[in-house]
Structures
1.
Amino acid sequence: MSRKVKVYSTSTCPYCSRAKDFLKQNNIDFENIDVSQDQAKAQEMIDLSGQMGVPVVVVGDDVIVGFDKGKLSKSLGI
Amino acid sequence: MHDVAIIGAGPAGITAAVYAARKRLDVVIITKDIGGQTAWSGDIENYTGYQFVSGPELVGKFEDHLKNHNVKLTEGQEVLSIDVDGNVFNIYSDKSKYTARSVIIASGKRSKELGVPGEKEFRNKGLTYCATCDGPLFSGKDVAVIGGGNSALDAGLQMVKIARHVYLLNNSNDLTGDKIMQDRLKMNKNLTVVNDASCGSIMGDKMVNGLTYKVIGDENHKKIDVQGVFVEIGLIPNSGFKIDIQKNKNKEIVVDAYNRTNIKGIFAAGDVTNVPEKQIIIAAGEGAKAAIQAFKYVTLN
């Protein structure tokens, strides 16, 4: 059973692009949430991760701050 | 065993890799990230050929160029030390070991920290070193940009469009960045420039809610209520590898006109060196020069 993946990002953040590219390369579907356009979603990200840095990648219940290939691969089971 | 190990994948490292690969050298790049400082830049208007390009876009182009060449790229690793074993170099990262006939150090620079109370606690909780990455999260809020050079002006220019108000705190009596950027910045009504100001502390509860600062000649600490603090006070070279290599008083690696360091077979390029000016286009040029020298060195030894 695959876990739902969400990426909180901004359009100008380089690590956000790398995180999304990594997911695409591994054929993982994800929902991209541009927090620069949506204040409510920005607050959601801050509440979820306890901090204001992007990207924040959510895999099921795992919240990963920043583009951490190791943690992300582990959460995704790849 | 590789012909050349390149440390760092910013403009200097990537250009060096492309040049080395085109000379059919066996190249390995060991890097923490791709793009270095360029990735954090907002708008770049002085990279010849690109009248106007964002940092991440330019890095994307460098990366595409690199990927068209046969180079082993290892990301997410930090080189800790280099040792010399006869005429071979052992490069130790936090995860692995590499051996090569020559080395090009192109590890660039990193942001200088303020060194004030609250800075570490509030990192990513309202305090950031990258306006390009995190700026959009401060939409409609009051923020402070600390610094007076081009990086601070770049951050200021990005934030006046996003934030409600921007306070630019600069510790000298005038801004030092390019006039063209200063003029553009000063046209904004939601900007307050405070000169001769040094930051005292960063305050907040879960997130930043203010900072204190002192103005030269005034004993009292003043406070401003801000929800974001962008630290742009300068950069320090990433030259702390365990190896006895010659550096200048600013800890930059000393190179000659051929990008040679004081260790035969080790070259260096870009912002980590004592090259007098630090620009993307200069770093790229330096990377090319270093690769050509590394090729000549490897061929003759």
2.
Amino acid sequence: MADLRRSVPWGPLCLLLGIACLPLGVQSRYYQSIAVIIGMHTIAAVGLSLLMGYAGQVSLGHAAFYGMGAYLSAIGSTTLGLNPWLAMPLAALVTGGLAAAIGTPIFRLRGHFLAMATLGLGIIVYIVFNELREVTGGPSGLTGIPALHLFGLPLNTDVRYYYVVWTFALGVIFLSRNIVDSRVGRALRAIHGSERAAAALGVNTARYKLAVFTLSAVYASLAGSLYAHYLLFVNPPPFSFKFSIELLVMVMIGGLAHIWGALFGASLITILGESLRATIPLLMGHASGEYEIIAFGLILMTTMILLPEGLWPWLAAMVERICTVSAAPPAGRPDGSFSPTLANPRGEPDPPTPLPEIPRRPAAPQGPLLEVQDLSKAFAGLQALSHVSFTVRAQEILAIIGPNGAGKTTLFNVIAGVFPPTGGTIRFAGKPIQHLESHRIASTGLIRTFQNVRLFGTMTVLENVMAGVHQRTRAGMAAAALRLPRERAEERQIQDEALRLLSTVGLPERASVMAADLPFGQQRVVEVARALAADPTILLLDEPCAGLSAGEREQLCDLVRRVRAGGVTVILVEHDMDLVMGLADRIVVLNYGEKIAEGTPAEIQNDPQVVAAYLGGEVMDVPVGGGRR
Amino acid sequence: MISIPQLLQFLVTGITNGSIYALIALGFVVIYSVTSVINFAQGEFAMLGALLAVSLITAGLPQGLAVVVAVIGVGIFTAVLYKVGLRPARDASPLTLIIITIGAALAIRGVALVIWGTEPYQMAPFTVGSPLQVGGAVIRLQSLWVLGATLMLQPLLHLFFSRTMLGRSLRACAVNRLAARLMGIRTDRMALLAFGLSGAVGALGGILIAPIIFATYDMGLMLSLKGFVAAVMGGLVNYPAAVAGGFLLGILESLGAGLISSGYKDAIAFVALFLILLSKPRWIVRSEQEIEEGS
């Protein structure tokens, strides 16, 4: 992480030099103009990459924002007579505002509905370009757009324009790289990994999705404005659905979660498109036509089938492999072998430079902390919970048990705000929370884990835990993009906190492993560490031991006890009677959505109703302490 | 104020166009319910059907035979498309799959451009005769064919899905793919069949309107989108509702074009799509939850 950042970025430096020197080597105006266009496409593709690759939200209508940038800039600098340098940011402002306004309802949708809605948006905007003749000039477009001037110098040659466009493009790449590698970036990738898990850590998913959508629209608008002041003429065809798809192909080729990949994809697709447009008509003998779509279509299909991660990451991995074959394997790299044991707790490593810690929540008041009263939840006729009431005291371990389908996970989901209850109240520290959204509940200090572990698979273990610190920290998109000192300081604190937690759970050496590559047992532990990073007042563990071996269970129980000793209240849903008997202070038993018993493990064991529910009437012979194994 | 004959005429046009949207929507529903894929290439099948049939007729085949050959040919093509394009990535996210179908749509359109060029093709009407006059509105005979075929297909599909083993197996896949597989249904083969069927239905749609509109290589995109909107209007998994959605969309469009502005005609479908999606009917919430669970 931090040490990686400090190493000299030779790749980007070479690229920068290449971009700076390119016009010196290219004399043909045609090639120069392609280089200019690539710069514009890069700007738009980087935005789309942030949206699709990092936040995992698709847009099939980004040409609309590119077109809006072009049209608004054109209208601003012709009809309204504004200076182009003023018209451009105004265009970006209006486009961004529109994206934010439309994004609010659109991003309530997911998956293919979102895809189709954005596609529809793109087509509506395209129709407006054609039909709003008084403003846009209709199909014949707008002419007489003034060129940009810089220090009195007209930017009317390809080479001059090239430098302006690429300054913008590299600026956009720089800002975006910073955003990606920050608290905001982690939140975006968390949303991509699992929206529900992100919300459970206090990430306001709707707000972040909207913010990144707006940002990508602003980028596209900027690219469009540059386009308008370059061609000095705009008409609708360049902003059709086809261009949205071209942008999509660029991002896909570049690999979704790679900012530099967007540059690669934009270059490749622009060059490919241009050369196909130039050569195919010669081969075909037809006058013209969009023959290049065959290539785009096939590229899109084959990439998605064979290299869903994109061409660029694949190439980068190839290059890396070739380079590392010759060099000795770097020291201190995780060897990738998985020990069967869950964790090997080590002593706390002493931090090299003590940083001020991230503020924690005020300690929970003593007495009843969570009061569930008369809680009911029905799904389309199925009564999953009916009139469940219980109280959780501060710093106790409460287990919720019950046979399959008893409503345990539903109860958890209702408490955590995944869906609202049909009736009843939940009070946390005296305040009703039953109608709050997940992320708001998380920010009150109720943090959950999931029955099927929901780590963010494409993030490292450390980043996962860092994402857990999200709601205790503040840095926003602007601070991240500009790398303000306070944001950097906070980032170091976050990393420190995450490393400390990884040590606590005994997995410090796993920090740089991709979460998806961890063995299952360790994934469970990392998920707990991630939840702890959110500084929970109450930790909700949903079947934390499901799928673990006996040894791993023992270690997880030990961890839960240590967490409680640290002042955290724990509620856990569990299937395994033995484990619960040895761990919990009190137990609530659910059956068919109703509470049938509540009490200490000893009381529960002797409760005839519980015995009947679990064993169908037979007598239970499980000794207290879970000693069956 | 518009006159009654004008209004009738709008309705006739709307129902004719709506029939095509309905047929495309049926294709969406068949594929979506069996495989959970939104097949963006749906409209391209209509284009292929129309252009293929025209070419076959030009080559000397009798019209009826040409139609049958084109419908079956596109059906087979669609099944092959599933086999080479979607089957290898079937475990990918719904979004990846939709992007693959977009790629397929582009490639198909491009190849059609190479084969048929940009010029429009027109097919002779199925029956020769002068248009009917009803209450001042003109009804082309072909419109009756279009409407009749759409309405006929409805009970036929119903019979297929409720009375035949194959149809029931397809429905089983739609309800629960895993359970269907556990019951010994070869879900993969069912997906192949669903694609073939929806390709054939789409091709039929394209052929039916070929005598009314000019068939061009790029007619597929709009048909895909409108068909999707119609399918969404009907809830995406309901056949009769999808057909009703198609008619409704067709009528809305033709009224909108007539009463407001013909330029904005295409926008109507998407405004409707927005309104439906954003009102978030229960079925959308449900299928989104499935997406979320799957992730």
